[in-house]
Design brief:
The structure is a homodimer.
Chain A (H helix, E strand, L loop, with lengths): L1 H25 L3 H11 L5 E3 H7 L4 H13 L3 E5 L7 E5 L1 H21 L6 H18 L22
Antiparallel strand pairs in A: 1-3, 2-3
Chain B binds a DNA duplex through helix 1 and helix 4.
Chain lengths: 160, 160
DNA sequence: CCGCGAAAGTTGAAGCGACAACTTGATTCA
DNA sequence: TGAATCAAGTTGTCGCTTCAACTTTCGCGG
């Protein structure tokens, strides 16, 4: 119970820390940063919207809005996907790549300062295991779904 | 690094899970629930806005809006604080108490299902320690030391 | 006792996310 | 083949959060 209260505080405060730092220093949301980060790590810096949504744990609606804003700022571009007329490829532009290179150091430093550096190596491994366990119960379609899939959950009835 | 990606996914997904469950089942946001929960655990079910903000890790502005909405729905009430003309006491109403009693079981069940029950007792302790470490680095620039004060408060801290 | 700065809240505008409705392109199957 | 169905995205609206003023009150020094 005490653990829960503190964990809730973390859930409440950490996103604001990252969001604030990125917005002040680079004019980007944490989620925008994450979207561009995923694109930048992809061969061709291009991904279909649906896959990008899966990789960033977002709904298509949310991603659509975000990509719209990023496109207005010239950080990504939308290309029709050859072979499937309804799919759209999102691609990180050169400008977007430059934005990432400018924003990454500050963000990484913030992550280190508030998470990595305050934990021991054992705690980091523990955090990974804990996150895995939680994700398994929450994350029905997940990030890195390949090789990560569980066949079924016991008694997990997610009501509508 | 792999730990970080998974932890980010947790930070991204868990709030939505709790928020969705509470909104569907009880018509309350997770933060509204948390605000009322803190009030319900306070002697007199009453707290000054600033202290409530500290206990819920929120800004005064955010809390003001939320309490406004809760007051419109009759779940809390605002009382001028005797002794300090600028302070406001937020108090959980009977209706708000009833709402909490109705909402709590479902929320607790959700928390258990997605967090408590998927972790071992050791992991829960680890999570508490990890949360503590992260909070310590996040609270430094902020007035949020109250997260710990919530449970060792002897009676009413109205005058200092 | 007066003025000044800080504390406690409030307010309004702007931005982001959730949700539902909608459009359009692919699939399936009778 | 053609109609029903599903998948991929988009759009619009609404509610919540943030940010920057703003108001009022308290405390303090002159």
């Amino acid at each position: 119970m005490a653990a829960w209260v503190r964990f809730v505080a973390v859930l409440e405060l950490l996103p604001g820390v990252f969001d604030g730092q990125l917005r002040r220093d680079s004019g980007v949301t944490h989620f925008e940063y994450f979207v561009m980060a995923v694109l930048s790590e992809t061969p061709g810096r291009t991904l279909r919207m649906a896959e990008l949504a899966g990789a960033t744990n977002a709904t298509l609606s949310r991603l659509s809005h975000v990509v719209q804003r990023l496109e207005d700022r010239g950080l990504v571009e939308r290309l029709p996907c050859p072979g499937d007329g309804r799919a759209i490829n999102a691609r990180l532009t050169e400008s977007g790549w430059a934005k990432m290179e400018a924003a990454a150091p500050g963000h990484v430093a913030t992550v280190r300062r508030h998470v990595i550096d305050v934990l021991t190596p054992e705690q980091i491994e523990q955090l990974a295991a804990i996150s895995d366990a939680i994700l398994a119960s929450v994350d029905l379609p997940g990030p890195m779904a390949a090789g990560y899939r569980r066949y079924d959950e016991p008694g997990d009835a997610k009501e509508s």
